[in-house]
Amino acid sequence: MIFDIVAVNSDHQKYFYHQYILAVTVFCISLSLPILMGHKKLIRFQAIDTYKNVLQYPENMKGNWKNFFGNDNPITLELACGKGEYSVNLGRQHKDHNYIGVDIKGNRIYTGAKAALEEGLDNVGFLRIHIGQITEYFEPGEVAGIWIIFPDPFLKKAKNRLTHPRFLHLYQQLLKTGATINLKTDSKELYDFTLETIAEQNCNKLEDIADIYGKGLATGPLAIQTFYEKKHLADGRTIYYLRFSLPANPIILSGRFEPKSDT
Ligand SMILES: C[S@@+](CC[C@H](N)C(=O)[O-])C[C@H]1O[C@@H](n2cnc3c(N)ncnc32)[C@H](O)[C@@H]1O
């Protein structure tokens, strides 16, 4: 019908005609964008279903990762891996080490899993689970280290932070004695909270850098930049890093970080 518009001869008529076409185009795009995005997610979910390097809520993996990788090399986890930049980059650099990116979001895991497959990185895998269930997937001592990279800081719900004692207690059930946990974050609140937790739980603090770029210390593994890190750097945010190991004694779940005391 719009094409039946009377002859658009005058400048005035042309202006309104173009405005009309523009409005219709914007309206159509805004309607189809969510559909296109949903479609993209669907394609990614279908793809990871077929990827041999992605396991989604698998059964019987506890104690069986050596079969998955075909070797007994040490295993490091990248928790909250998103697109898995740490797993892929560390996997490239250390072929004698295995890396598993862990995240709940399959469409993000897709990016890292695809890159690892295309490069033939057999030492990189991805596990789609809720990190709160991690002890169902690894047996005691099966994990040699953990990277926690720009996790959501959960400013209102401390119990969901991946460095909350509730999570440290889980990690303690998988990690080899003396294994290190690395946290990289742009959240001062999460950094401070983790420092307090480390002190309260008698963890062994090994490295504490309040501004890795300001101090010129973004080298080695700290030079790897993830999707979120690039965004935070573009916004001029400070990046914090902590490395620590857990105490020999069990993590204490009662006390001021007890989940029940959260608001
Ligand atoms: C802010 S993004 C960071 C992603 C990536 N590390 C990066 O730096 O680009 C946080 C990620 O943590 C994941 N995540 C948060 N809590 C989780 C949980 N309990 N279990 C699994 N994944 C979780 C989210 O799905 C999301 O991909």
Task: List the main descriptive attributes of the protein structure presented here.
eight-stranded mixed sheet; binds S-adenosylmethionine; Rossmann fold; 2 domains; globular; disordered N terminus; alpha/beta; 263 residues
Q: What is the CATH topology descriptor of the largest domain? A: Rossmann fold
Q: What is the CATH top level name of the largest domain?
A: Alpha Beta
> What is the average per-residue confidence, as pLDDT, rounded to a whole number?
90
Task: Compute the number of helices.
Answer: 7
CATH architecture annotation name of the largest domain: 3-Layer(aba) Sandwich
Task: Outline the biggest β-sheet.
Answer: 8 strands, mixed
| Helical proportion, percent range | 25-40%
Helix-strand category:
alpha/beta
Order of strands in the sheet with most strands: 1-4-3-2-5-6-8-7
Q: Which H/E pattern describes the elements?
A: HEHEHEHEEHEHEHE
Bound compounds: S-adenosylmethionine
Radius of gyration equals: 24 Å
Task: Describe the global form.
Answer: globular
Indicate the proportion of strand residues: 15-25%
In the predicted model, the low-confidence regions spanning at least 5 consecutive residues are 1-6
How many domain units? Answer: 2
Q: Tell me the number of strands.
A: 8
CATH superfamily of the largest domain: Vaccinia Virus protein VP39
Q: Give the termini distance in whole angstroms.
A: 57 Å
